[in-house]
Amino acid sequence: MQPGKGFLVWLAGLSVLGFLATDMYLPAFAAIQADLQTPA
């Protein structure tokens, strides 16, 4: 039994999710620092 196309799309989306999360939070470090009012 081969996996369906929907399952493969879902699996690809899950594998990209980690990279997307990293790319989203790294540029936000300056905003997080300002929001928490912490020194560099």
Overview of this protein structure:
With about 40 residues, this protein is an all-alpha fold. The protein has one domain (about 5-35). The chain contains two helices and no strands. The longest helix has 21 residues, at about 5-25.
Sequence of secondary-structure elements: HH
User: How many domain modules?
Assistant: 1
Portion of residues in helices?
over 70%
In one word, what is the shape?
rod-shaped
Q: How many angstroms does the end-to-end distance come to? A: 54 Å
Q: Which spans of ≥5 residues are poorly predicted at pLDDT below 50?
A: none
As a percent range, the share of strand residues is under 5%
**What about the largest sheet?**
none
User: Kindly state the mean pLDDT as a whole number?
Assistant: 92
Number of strands: 0
Count of separate DSSP helical elements: 2
Structural class: mainly alpha
Radius of gyration from the alpha-carbon trace, in angstroms: 17 Å
Briefly characterize the structure.
Helices cover 72% and strands 0% of the residues.
What is the strand and helix layout of this fold?
Elements: H1 5-25, H2 29-36
